[in-house]
Amino acid sequence: MKLFAIFGDPVSHSRSPLMHNSVFKNLNYKACYTRVHLKDGSKLRDTFFNLGLSGVNITVPHKEAAYEACDEIRGFASKVGVVNTIINENGKLIGYNTDADGFMFAIEEFGHVENVLILGAGGTAKALASRFLQDNINVDVINRSEGRLSYFKDIGCTCHTWDNFKSKKYDLVVNTTSAGLKDEELPAPLEIIESVLNNTNFVADAIYGKLTPFLKLAQSKNITFKDGADMLLGQGVLANELFVNQELNKEDIKKHMQRSFDY
Ligand code: NDP
Predict the structure, then answer these.
(1) What letter does residue 132 receive in the DSSP assignment?
(2) Given this model, what pLDDT does residue 263 score?
(3) Index of the ligand 1 atom closest to the CA of residue 13
(4) What pLDDT score was predicted for residue 260?
(5) From the CA of 20, how far away is ligand 1's center (Å)?
(6) Largest Cα–Cα distance of the chain, in whole Å?
(7) Are 192 and 140 a contacting pair, CB within 8 Å?
(8) pTM of the model
(9) Is the peptide bond before 61 cis (omega within 30 degrees of 0)?
């Protein structure tokens, strides 16, 4: 029996155990997936080996620490320095990022997108910004503090703090901050949020399982929006494929993960 987990702080909200266990159970794959409340990201590697894990997902706020903990980084994760999936390959930790492609899957229904505003500058924002630029989408980023913006400037995003922001027209505004996850905060002061919502066609939030204050405001303005559930599904399918080493069919994984949303 293989053991998998999600590491995060907070982590009790995570639906990943339900999703992955639904796949393992329905496809008779001998594995179990649990939650680990990891407060200190520097203990990630030791915790992984002490628990005898075969793989993990990593959520807020440890995705950058997860990158540091790996012996080898593959694919898109090496471009962004952000890891949300780790596989134990013969005692070596191999890091991947499935968030960015998971998000692109989630916004397919919005159609063609040219201008995006990302709220927040953490690990998820990095992955999404790089992925958007790869598709030649213009990316603006706004964060409450300046320090984390340098990465985004370097890769070609237009960057703002709350002090110097003036809204343009956007096709899509995405909240990647953790504001609203465990509190009722907006991702930026109300006047900023009002101005971006008045200038966008679509809104998305990486947070799932609740209508955040940001999404509530979008809803009150009749803007088409989605929470992070489809992103969760997209990144989860890709992570599960890595966990089972492609022994399972992607469409089967997706079907059983979707079923777990009904529980
Ligand atoms: P990080 O900790 O790396 O980044 C958090 C960001 O949020 C930082 O830019 C931080 O700003 C900002 N922030 C935190 N609190 C506030 C606040 N009260 N007001 C304004 N800004 C704030 O987190 P991650 O990128 O790993 O995750 C971000 C969110 O995305 C989480 O809620 C996570 O659950 C969700 N997520 C969902 C996924 C899904 O599958 N649906 C996948 C990945 C993430 P500063 O730099 O100033 O500290």
Answers:
(1) H
(2) 61
(3) 34
(4) 85
(5) 23
(6) 54
(7) no
(8) 0.90
(9) yes
Q: What is the pLDDT, as a whole number, of residue 258? A: 87
Residue 223, judged by CB atoms within 10 A of its CB (0-12, 13-18, 19+), counts as: middle
- The pLDDT value given to residue 16: 96
Q: Residues 100, 81: contact at Cβ < 8 Å?
A: no
Paired tokens of 237: 């399918």
* Nearest to 127, CA basis, from 155, 107, 147: 155
- Spatial separation of the C-alpha atoms in residues 66 and 196, rounded to whole Å: 32
b or e along 71-104 (b: 16 or more beta carbons within 10 Å of the residue's beta carbon)?
eebbebbbbbbbbbbbbbeeeebbbbbbbbbbbb
Look at residue 246 in the predicted model and tell me its pLDDT: 72
Regions of the chain where pLDDT drops below 50: none
Can you tell me the distance from the alpha carbon of 209 to that of 212, in angstroms, rounded to the nearest whole number? 9
The pLDDT, as a whole number, for residue 254 is: 87
- Residue 60: per-residue pLDDT: 92
β strands within the chain, DSSP E: 2-8, 31-37, 55-58, 72-73, 85-89, 92-96, 115-119, 138-143, 158-161, 170-175, 200-205, 224-226
Residue 30 Cα to ligand 1 midpoint, Å, equals 33
Task: Report the amino acid identity of residue 14.
Answer: S
Q: Does residue 66's CB lie within 6 angstroms of at least one atom of ligand 1? A: no
Rounded to whole angstroms, how far apart are CA atoms 164 and 199? 17
**Ligand 1 neighbour 59 (Cβ under 6 A):** yes
Distance CA 46, CA 140 (A): 37
